[in-house]
Every structure is written in C-alpha cells, then in structure tokens.
C-alpha cells in the first residue's frame, strides 16, 4: 500500500524548479525549436554552432559517460561575439544537470510501495508469466505500473479502475486478471475496443487454466497408455512480437469457451497470459486414430498449441481406476475451477468506446460508477492533461496514475502558430506558467519526444532519413519554389530502395511533378550534401541532449497544477520504467484527501 511517509514536495519548491528549467530552456530555445528539415536551406549549423560537427560528436562521447551533480555550477556556454555555442562539454553537462533525475523533483518509486525490499524471486511463482503475452517493452510497463496502481487501490480502499486511452487493453486486462480489480478501459477507437474485447475473451479462458495449473504444482505430467508420466513444457514457445489481434479465423477464433477449462487438466501445460499468432502455429500430429477423432473446437485448440504440448494418444483414466491420492488431486482441481469462475464475477474488464475530454461526464459512459482510480499508460497529447483535469473535477476519483506521451500533439494556449481558439489546452496546465504566458512551440515539443537514453546507446535516431528529408527540402525550394506544404512525406523513406527513389516517392506524395527532375540531377544533390551528413548527426544529438529538459518542464507544469488544487492531498512525479525499455518513463501520481 502507499506509504503515508512519502516525501511530499511543496508547491513553492515545484515552482522554483520550474523557474530553473524555464530559464535554462529559454537560453537554448533556438536549438530545440530549429527544424532539422531546414538544416541546409537555412544553414542552421553555422547560425548556432561555432565548432565543427566532429568536435561536437567527440565531446558528446566523452561527457556522456560522466556523472553530473545538480549542485555543479555550469558556465554560460556561448561565444561572446557571435552568441553561438562553443563549449560543447559544458553544454552537455548543463543539460544533464537540468534533467529530472538531477534536479530533485521526483519521488522514488520504492517510497510508494509497501514492500520496499521485496525480491522478484519471491513472487515469480505467484504471478502470471507476463512476457508470454506481449513484447518486452509492454510487459515491463504493464508489470511495474500494475503494481503501483494496485498499491494505490489498496491504500484508498477501492476496487474500480478507469483506464483512459486503454488501446488493446494490455494494462486493463492484467489489472483485472492478476489483481482482481474491476476495470473499465475507455478508448476513442472502436477498432481498439473490439480487439480488446476479443483478446480479453480468449485470455479469460486460458487464465482459468493457468490458475488451475498454478494451484497444483505437483501435477506436472500427463499419464500415457503405459501409465508413465510425461513431463509437459513449462510454457508455450511464442515469438516475442506475437499479437493476439492477428490470430486467424482458422485458429484461436474458433476456440470454444469450454475447451480451455474442461481440457486443462488433460493437457496440463502452463497456459499463461498469452497472445497467439497464426504465423507461429504448428500443426498437430496427423497420426490420430479413428477412436480419438477431435471436434472442430478441440482441433483448433491443438493448432495453437506447440506440437510437443499434448499427447494425442492419451487414454482417459476411468474414475474407478483412480487412486485415493489422484481423487484428492481431482477434487482440488475442481475447487480451483470454481474459485476461478467466482473470481471472474468480481474482477472484470469492460472495454468501452468514447472520446474523452476534460468535460466528459464519466457517469454517462460507466453506468455503475463508484469510487475509482483513474489511470493512463502513454496517453497521447492532451489526453494526459485531461486525465488530470478529470481527476481533480470528479469527487468519485480518489487517485490518479498517468504516464503521458506524444508531446508534439499537445495544444499550447500561447502558441500563435497552433491557430487554436478553444480550450482547455494541453500546455500549460498550471496557473503559475499561465501567468507567464509560457510557450514552447511545436519543434521544441517534438524535441521532447526524443529518447536520450536510447540514442546514447545507438538506438532510436535514424540520421539517414533526416538527411534525405533535408535534401528534399532543398529540392522543393530550388526546383519547385515550395517552402512549406500541407502534405506529408509519410513513410517514403522506409519504402524507398535508393535516394533517387525516395525523392520521387516523396515528391509524388507532396503532389509535385517529379518528371521535371532527371535522375542525374537528383543524384547530384545527394553527392553535394553527403559530406555534410555529420552536421545532421551532430545537430540532432544537441537537440536530443535538450529533450529531458523540455520533457521535465512539461511534467513539472502538470505536477504544479495538482499542487495548486485544494482537494489533492498528495502528488508526485515518479520514474516508473527503465528509460532504455520505455523512454516515456515518468508518471504523475496523486491522491485526494480521504
């Protein structure tokens, strides 16, 4: 449960940290708001940077591994005469010192959990094997966030959870099945809701089988014709990228509800929290005797299981042949089935379709609304801000746990470029920043979406695609007289086989006549700017270094908004996830006065 001794950072402290970040980001707004598309057309490198790209990359490599203390004074790192960046090492140290891990604004996750020193090995047999149903990133997010949400629910003494932007229902279904919570998943996409419903239907069948399996660890095998026990695999072999929504109609869609339950003790394999992919399904053995013909639903079940997971020639043991010990085992299995069915009645997951705004009335969506926790895992753009607004406005919402993403989709109240004449806006939320009419701009918010930790280890930044796009901008301006287009290039880079192919695909998407450009002229552009590719890499690394500072200011604004509310008793900023696995790793957590 949530500890009552959790450190609570006061409103004035949060405002002070906002001022520190705001001043720093303001000094480097020219870099984070520069668009890499214009790197060559506007000669951005020579405008802002006074050293070579090679010097920047070398400094980044050296300083990147240093430990930075927030207490270290960082000099103002620009040239006196030209106002261009000259001291790259000091710049990198300054960006690190102004990121959330160093400014002292976060509450450690351990403080929010009752069992601070709990070892993973102690619970590994008590929880479902979550990595069998989703990729490692999603499994990490769902597992960690579920534990925190459950702790909040226990502390507040409530059973109902509302998951906004629930998508395919990974978090919702796990909260329901693993922790017995009553969950409503709300998503604006009916396709996502339908997929979540179907996925949840299948998971519930296998969940019952898993519970039976977990309750009887001594039942590890299956009796063969000779009476010997053959070991079954601990888990099904599944690809890491399996997706339940991709199951074909010829496999898991034909599974009947009674199959997974009634045959669980016969198959006796660990069926956990699983997604099936028809591409991974192995056919069952063709050697089936006439005495053991399978029904269509049974055969479908075998198709989604590993070929080694069942013994098709198993002879069922008659009741009169069972020993006393075997009868006791059977009684325990039956009891566990009844408990699983009873659990389904109290812990449910209901996917719903609705577009949620700050004015949304939850009672119109959820008929049996009761005291609840509102959560959101990577809610896009304004939805993360609206989650907090709804939490503050609705008395039945007792706690909130929100992880946002897609900062580039935020609407800004004081950004004239947005052209928005409505509200409430996604940024700023706090009255403190509203009073200062603070604004980032879209390019800066795009910079906040970059993943510093991943880029630092060589992931997450495709320099070549950015390079191609910057040359395309040169072609657009020089050969077509177009500086800006409402059209989008989209995934032209991923589909192209060469630079020339990319340019032609992109021009067609922009509805520009590519026939006026011969291949040779297009290739000449590439050869002219290829020696400046390192400018693109180095400049983007400077933007990546600033990304945690921009994200930090967005999140501190949200925290400040909660601190300003009279009905919020505690609020904090918590790093939930490993940033290498999940770059958008920070959660806003808050509780109301009980």
Write the layout of secondary structure elements.
Blueprint: H1 11-27, H2 29-32, H3 44-48, H4 53-63, H5 88-97, H6 100-103, H7 109-112, H8 120-123, H9 136-156, E1 160-164, H10 170-179, E2 182-187, H11 190-215, E3 221-223, E4 229-231, H12 257-262, H13 264-267, H14 296-304, H15 324-346, E5 349-353, E6 372-380, H16 382-393, E7 397-405, H17 431-434, H18 442-448, H19 452-456, H20 463-480, H21 492-495, H22 499-509, H23 519-529, H24 533-563, E8 568-575, E9 586-592
Parallel strand pairs: 1-2, 1-6, 2-5, 6-7
Antiparallel strand pairs: 3-4, 7-9, 8-9
Strand portion = 5-15%
Largest sheet: 7 strands, mixed
Number of strands: 9
Mean pLDDT: 76
Helix content, binned percent:
40-55%
Strand line-up of the largest beta sheet: 5-2-1-6-7-9-8
User: What is the molecular shape?
Assistant: globular
Task: Report the radius of gyration as a whole number of Å.
Answer: 28 Å
């Amino acid at each position: 449960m949530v500890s009552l001794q959790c450190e609570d950072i006061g409103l004035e402290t949060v405002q002070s940290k906002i001022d520190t970040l705001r001043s720093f980001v303001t000094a480097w707004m020219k870099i984070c708001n520069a668009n890499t598309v214009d790197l060559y057309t506007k000669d951005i490198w020579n405008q802002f940077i006074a050293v070579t790209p090679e010097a920047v990359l070398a400094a980044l490599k050296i300083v990147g591994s240093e430990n930075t203390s927030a207490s270290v004074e960082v000099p103002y790192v620009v040239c006196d005469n030209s106002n261009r960046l000259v001291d790259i090492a000091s710049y990198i140290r300054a960006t690190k010192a102004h990121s959330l891990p160093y400014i002292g604004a976060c509450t450690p996750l351990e403080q929010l959990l009752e069992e601070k020193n709990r070892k993973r090995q102690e619970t590994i047999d008590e929880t479902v094997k979550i990595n069998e149903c989703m990729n490692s990133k999603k499994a990490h997010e769902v597992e960690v966030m579920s534990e925190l949400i459950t702790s909040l629910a226990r502390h507040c003494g409530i059973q109902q959870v509302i998951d906004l932007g629930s998508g395919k229902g990974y978090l919702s279904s796990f909260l329901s099945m693993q922790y017995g919570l009553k969950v409503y998943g709300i998503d604006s996409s009916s396709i996502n809701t339908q997929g979540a419903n179907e996925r949840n239907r299948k998971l519930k069948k296998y969940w019952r089988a898993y519970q039976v399996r977990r309750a009887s660890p001594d039942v590890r095998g299956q009796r063969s014709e000779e009476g010997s026990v053959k070991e079954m695999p601990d888990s099904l072999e599944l690809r890491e990228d399996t997706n339940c929504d991709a199951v074909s109609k010829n496999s898991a869609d034909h599974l009947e509800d009674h199959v997974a339950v009634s045959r669980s003790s016969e198959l006796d394999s660990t069926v956990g929290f699983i997604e099936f992919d028809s591409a991974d399904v192995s056919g069952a053995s063709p050697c089936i005797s006439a005495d053991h013909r399978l029904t269509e639903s049974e055969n479908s079940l075998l198709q989604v299981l590993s070929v080694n997971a069942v013994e098709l020639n198993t002879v069922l043991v008659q009741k009169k042949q069972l020993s006393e010990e075997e009868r006791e085992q059977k009684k325990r299995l039956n009891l566990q089935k009844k408990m699983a069915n009873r659990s389904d009645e109290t812990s449910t997951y209901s996917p719903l379709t609705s577009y949620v705004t700050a004015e949304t009335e939850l009672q119109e969506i959820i008929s049996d609304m009761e005291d609840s926790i509102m959560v959101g895992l990577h809610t896009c753009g304004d939805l993360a801000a609206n989650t907090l607004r709804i939490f503050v406005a609705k008395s039945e919402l007792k706690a909130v746990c929100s992880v946002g993403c897609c900062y580039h989709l935020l609407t800004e109240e004081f950004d004239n470029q947005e052209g928005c004449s409505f509200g409430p806006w996604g940024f700023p939320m706090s009255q403190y920043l509203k009073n200062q009419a603070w604004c980032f701009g879209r390019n800066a918010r795009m910079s906040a979406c970059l993943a510093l930790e991943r880029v630092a280890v060589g992931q997450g930044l495709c320099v070549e695609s950015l390079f191609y796009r910057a040359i395309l901008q040169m072609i657009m301006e020089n050969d077509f007289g177009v500086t800006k287009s409402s059209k989008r290039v989209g995934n032209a880079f991923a589909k192209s086989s060469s630079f020339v192919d990319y340019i032609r695909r992109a021009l067609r998407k922009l509805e520009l006549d590519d026939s006026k450009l011969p291949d040779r002229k297009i290739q000449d552009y590439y050869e002219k700017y290829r020696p400046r590719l390192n400018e693109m890499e180095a400049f983007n690394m400077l933007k990546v270094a600033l990304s945690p500072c921009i994200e930090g200011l967005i999140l501190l604004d949200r925290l400040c908004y909660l601190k300003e509310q009279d009905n919020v008793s505690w609020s904090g900023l918590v790093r939930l996830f490993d940033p290498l696995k999940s770059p958008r790793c920070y959660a806003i957590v808050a509780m109301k006065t009980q």
